[in-house]
Each structure stands twice: as C-alpha cells, then as structure tokens.
Task: structure prediction
Amino acid sequence: MKRKVLSLAIASVLSGALLAGCGSGSAGSGTSATQAKSDAAPAASSAVSTEAASESTTPASAAKSANIPKLTDQPLTITLWDIATEDPAKTIQEGAVARFMKDYPNITVNQVHQQNDNYKQQLVVAMSSKQAPDMYMHWGGGPMAEYYKSGFCNDLTDMYAQYDHPDFIDAAVAQSTYDGKMLAIPFGGYSGCDLFYNKTIFEKCGITELPKTIDDLEKDCEILKSNGYVPFSLANANKWTGSMWYMYLVARHSGNDEFNAAYTQENGGSFTSEAFVWACDKIQDWVKKGYFPEGVNSLNADDGQDRQLLYNETCAMMLHGSWQCSSIKADNADWYTQNIGVMPFPHDAEAEAKGVPQNVEVGTAIGNGFSFNCWKSDGSVDQDKLDACYVLATQYYNDDTYNQQQLEAGNFPSIKGMEKNITDPNQKIVADIFFNASNVQLWYDQYLPASVTEVHKNCMSDLFGLTKDGKQIGEEEDKAMQAALKEQ
Result:
C-alpha cells in the first residue's frame, strides 16, 4: 500500500498545537475506559514480560480452540503503543500482552506506554517519519479515518468476517468502521456523557421529578438558585469539559445532521448553522443567569475541582463522563451511594415535536480501539504480523481475564451481555441510556481533525467566558475545518 504523508495532522504538529488527549474512557489519568478524558497522565514506556501475567485462575485465553489465524512459529516482534501509564490500566493491559507471549513464546511484544496528552502528536510524528508502531491505540472518529487514508491502518473487514472476535455492541462496531471498512478492534469499553445530580439537594429543594425537557431543567435551575445553590458544576480550564454541554445541546436540537454537515462543509454545512448558534446562545444565557460557577474557565477537572463543588453542596448537577461514577465512589463510596443520581440529558421539546431524535447520546462506544500498521517493505500486507496483532487484540485484550479486570476497575467492555455484570444502580442507568441510543456522537475533540480540535477547545473557553458569540465561534470552527479539508 502506498503511504501518503499525514498532511492534515502534520500541519497541526508543525503549528505546535496541543493536541486533544481524550483517553477513551476517561477522567483521572487518561489511561483507561473510565479514565478517558484527562490530560494529566505521566509519561512512561516499558517492554512487557510474562511476569506481568495475571494470577487469575481463569485460563489465559480461549485462543487455542478459537477460530483464529494460525500464527507463525518463526521469531516475530510487534511494537505496540498505548496510553496505559497508570494502574489499573497499566497492569491490566500488560497482563493481556503477557498472556499472549506465554502462549506464543516466539513472538515478542514491545509495549510502549505514551503520555496521554502527547500521544496523538507522537503518533503523527512517527507516521510522518515512517516509524509508526505495528499496533496502536486511538479513539476512532476522524483521526482513525485519517490514519487509514494515509496508509497506516490495515483493513480488517475480511478478517473480522472470517475469524472469531467478541460480540461487540453495534455502536462499537460502527465507531470502529469507516467507509464500510472495519479498521479497529475495540478494547477500552464504553463511556457515556450523563447528567449527575445530588439527590439530597433535590429533595431539600422539593424537586421530586427529574427534568425531562430543557424547559423543565431551566425551571429546576431557578428553584435551585432560589435556595442558594449553583445549578451546574463545571471545571472548564480543560476546555473539553465545556464542549460536553455544547455537543449535547447541538445533538438535542438537530440530532447528528448539522454536525455531520459541518464536518464535511458540504451542502451548506457550517458550524454557524442554527443548532450550533442555538446551543451557544443557550449556554451563554445560562452563564449570565448564574447557572455555572464563577471563574468556570479557571477550574480544573484534572484536580477534581468540579466534583468538589458537588461534595460541598455548592452545585447540584454536573454533566460529565460516566467514569465519574467510579471516581466519586473512589473518593467516598458512602457519600456517593447516599447522594449521587444519574439522568439522561433532557430533551429539546421543540425539536422533538419536529421529529428530531432525542436519544442521540454523547460519548464513545469503544473507549479505545487498536488499529494495525502491518506492511512489508514492498507495500504488501505483512500477514504474519497482522494475524498476530489480530489475535492479541481479539483474544487477549478481550478475554475473560481482561474483561473481569476491566469490570473490577469500573470499566465496562463494549461487548453484548456485559451489562448483566453491572451492580451499581447509577451505572445501570448509564448502560440503559447508552445501549438504547439511536446513535452515539463521539466526543468532538476526538472526532474532529487534530488542527480543528485545538480551535474547537479554545472556542469553548470563549463560549463560557462570554468573549465570543455563537456566530463568531462557528466562523472560527468553519475556518479551521475548511483549512483541514484543504490540507487533506
């Protein structure tokens, strides 16, 4: 396969942009499906040895009896890049590699852990210098499509149809697919975006029914304010946190249509279209009404400052990733059980009356996916290496041991039936919302091209800081998207 320069991504690297570092699944360390969105993970790298294998009594894998490719018996080395710099993700993922190497001692996997906030940039640099790893994690969306179009991603469609693999949920398969081609194997787990609320505060204020519409939500906000509470907690120094509000309001007002059109900039598509401007106007109206804490752009989610505003009862609600169930529980399990509830983002009744679907959710269905870059010097597929990568991703990163460890860590693999293992009532609600979604809008900062992502994130500071209106923000995002498409 001829490899093209990743011009779109390279332009962003050369401009010195701080690329989006959404670690699939979440917020504290950016290393796992429940720790996807943090940019704070420390740098680390290591080669894995079989000593990291789990002591679980569960067999290492079902690979030997599964319908899988027959792997070579010749020496083979695979270079794998991930962002598992901290536990529990680090131990869990190293254990999967160790189990694989124990079963295939002729194959060495050099597992390199990259710091989350630099990962996309390092991957682009490696691709541009033809030093890309054989197997690498990502978050799907626009970057995955770009890796494929630039020649650094094998098409797995035929292998996926021929060989065994986990029964991934439909949304996870969709987020691993581009242009009808299967390009990645999910391994992280789903992360939804949900509205957390303090049940105790709601009871004190006499709010007995959860808001079903945005109008209901605004009425409850006024009740909360009259009782001395700030309705919404938000720490927007990270910028992607504010984007959650923007994404959901756009999705509720237009489904996926206006975002999809703005992404292609075709048929009049624009980030200045009605849904985007409406979402900006709504957020800025809420800022002016005091629905968000003062100094919202200086508060840092990496330090848990948004959660602290829930804990001290300054704020009553927080829109955030579903990994917050585990984060809050880890801080204080009793307080979490007594006080925290979860609800879906309310509907836009006016849009719903016009037929706009209201069960488009925001988040990720894969958490992380592995794509493979297995080619020979003549441009043909290195089938031996590709087979080994496929087996490692499908049979070890998704085996019983791996999935059980994921569940124990609070992550939920995107595999059908896994929802039966959920015992936390809030996480059951999250799963129900997510599994019944008509579509899942991947986080904008993961879906958009890297150069556009940085512009988008900066616009979120302007949005909540009231320094630019919706039309100005949309024009900036359009300009960035048009430049990215031109480079592409």
